[in-house]
Specification:
Chain A has about 180 residues and is of the alpha/beta class. Helices cover about 40% and strands about 10% of the residues of chain A. A five-stranded parallel beta sheet of chain A has the order 2-1-3-4-5, sandwiched between helices. Helix content of chain B is about 75%, strand content about 0%. Chain B has helices at about 1-40, 50-60, 70-85, 100-120, 125-155, 160-170, 175-180, 180-195, 205-210, 220-245, 250-255, 255-285, 290-320. Chain B has 13 helices and no strands. Chain B is globular, with a radius of gyration of 20 Å. By secondary structure, chain B is mainly α. Classes of the chains: A alpha/beta (about 180), B mainly alpha (about 325). At the A-B interface, helix 1 of A face helix 2 of B.
């Protein structure tokens, strides 16, 4: 898989160093768009404001997916919501990362036998980090942010590359749950 | 040969000054985030955070396609702001100039905003359209007191040239000492010009999803961030040049290269003070609606600016104070 963000000065900066620079920059300035699907939205205000202050690490909320690098899915994902999540995810610019909150996007949680929620978010869009718990506290969220930053630094957060590589398979999974795309 | 050498030296100096100005703007954005965080009782990001943000954005790829105007707009905005920077004296050093340049400057200041509006309009996003409409209405609102302030300066100093204005302020006192009422009106207008908080109506992220910026991402947004860094320096520097003597404390004709260094440092300190006033107001205020901002600007700052104009007129024409 070739990286999509080409080196601007290939003759001066070696390819390996360029990737390192890019990873170092993107880990220190993660702009996030939080897709507040469920109860997890409640945990975001304390994480953003003076108690836990995530702006320390350069993480700030952004208004639109065009500007964001990090997608937070905070809670259960209904089929109808999943359509919007996929659309938001595809509007984000590479490199992009996804964090899924709570037990619902992991295995369905208490919505295990619901008729209209999906059970594993990872089947539809690539997830870089899960936070288990119902709901995770702000400490857990901060921990996830730090772990994601470490993963980006070591090049392990490669969900956006996986989405490109297995695009047809992700699309097939999405098509299986959506009856149509326009509702 | 010497002509070519001079041109090369001038080009190098120009590039250096513009680069420094953009760096100062990015640093100011970082300082503003830190100061705002401390006012909110947070820790806040490091002050070099905005350099990292710009680096990240420029290293990202943008695959948003609308039309060529959309691709062209960030460059247009950045080039416009660089042109405005070249016309404004920064610490006494000035790259371009002309006669009657206070009026020319007014026109140049509009170019970057127009480029911005062009790109936002080309993206055909309804949020961007609302944002551009608000930005143009806001511009109409703050231009009223600001033009009155400029008029009072022109009457008092009897010139429309920025160079002469700076020279006269250097040889006597700063304009803020003799025209404090006009300076107050100009500072209120500046808050709207910089789109800081009671007047951040065009880019209200919680209402219209950052307005004109809504469709920009990746390296386009990086270029627009450089544009906003430049425009911070343009706007604060405009106030400093008009009312605080442009930070010129030593005469370059007498002290030579030392004067340039000292003046640059003083200029930096002064624009920092002007920026901090704006940030302190920004950190504690909520946001006006656009019609409230319009009514506010055409009422209080206009009244204050008219008082300042009367003062300048009485002092220079009736009492015959000449500088």
């Amino acid at each position: 898989m070739t990286p999509e963000n080409p080196n601007p000065l290939p003759s001066i900066i070696p390819e390996k160093d360029w990737k390192k620079i890019q990873r170092m920059l993107s880990k220190r300035s993660l702009w996030m768009v939080h897709f507040c699907t469920g109860c997890g939205a409640m945990e975001m205000p304390p994480t953003m404001t003076s108690r836990y202050d995530m702006e320390r690490f350069g993480i700030i909320p952004m208004a639109t997916p065009r500007q964001a690098d990090l997608l937070l899915v905070t809670g259960y994902v209904a089929v109808k919501t999943l359509k919007r999540i996929v659309r938001v995810y595809e509007q984000m610019q590479d490199p992009k990362y996804v964090i899924a909150f709570g037990s619902c996007p992991i295995n369905g949680g208490i919505y295990w036998d619901s008729y209209n929620t999906i059970k594993r978010l990872d089947k539809y869009i690539p997830v870089d980090m899960y936070i288990a718990g119902c709901m995770p506290r702000p400490e857990a969220i901060m921990d996830a942010f730090l772990k994601l930053m470490k993963d980006i630094d070591e090049g392990r957060a490669d969900g956006w590359l996986r989405y490109k590589k297995y695009y047809e398979k992700y699309k097939a999974n999405q098509r299986r749950v959506f009856k149509r795309w326009d509702e | 040969m010497t002509d070519w050498a001079n041109i090369l030296i001038n080009a190098g100096l120009t590039a250096l000054y513009l680069f420094l100005a953009i760096c100062v703007g990015l640093l100011f954005m970082g300082i503003a985030r830190k100061v705002t965080a401390r006012i909110h009782n947070r820790v806040g990001p490091p002050i070099y955070q905005n350099f990292l943000d710009v680096g990240k954005l420029l290293a990202k790829k943008s695959n948003i396609k609308h039309n060529w105007i959309f691709d062209f707009a960030p460059l247009f905005a950045l080039a416009g702001v660089l042109l405005a920077l070249a016309y404004l004296p920064m610490g006494g050093y000035r790259l371009l100039s002309g006669d009657g340049d206070l009026i020319l400057l007014l026109y140049i200041l509009v170019i970057p905003a127009l480029g911005f509006a062009l790109g936002a309009g080309a993206s055909a996003n309804p949020n961007a359209g609302v944002g551009v409409m608000r930005a143009l209405t806001l511009m109409l609102s703050y231009e009223m007191p600001f033009l009155l302030v400029l008029l009072s300066l022109m009457i008092y100093y009897n010139t429309a040239s920025l160079t002469t204005l700076l020279e006269k302020q250097m040889h006597s006192v700063w304009a803020i000492d003799v025209l404090p009422i006009s300076a107050l009106a100009a500072d209120i207008a500046l808050q709207g010009m910089m789109m800081e908080k009671p007047f951040d109506i065009p880019i209200a992220p919680h209402e219209i999803a950052s307005g004109p910026l809504v469709e920009f991402g990746g390296n386009y947004l990086g270029m627009l961030m450089l544009y906003s860094a430049g425009s911070i320096v343009v706007e604060t520097s405009l106030f400093v040049d008009l009312f605080l003597g442009g930070g010129i404390v030593l005469n370059p004709a007498v002290y030579g290269i030392l004067a340039y260094v000292v003046n640059y440092i003083v200029w930096f300190a002064l624009i920092f003070v002007v920026w901090m006033i704006a940030i302190f107001i920004n950190a504690v205020f909520p946001r006006f609606r656009i019609e409230q901002a319009f009514k506010f600007y055409w009422k209080w700052p206009t009244l204050i600016a008219a008082l300042g104009l009367a003062q300048a007129y009485i002092m220079s024409v009736i009492l015959g104070v000449s500088v």
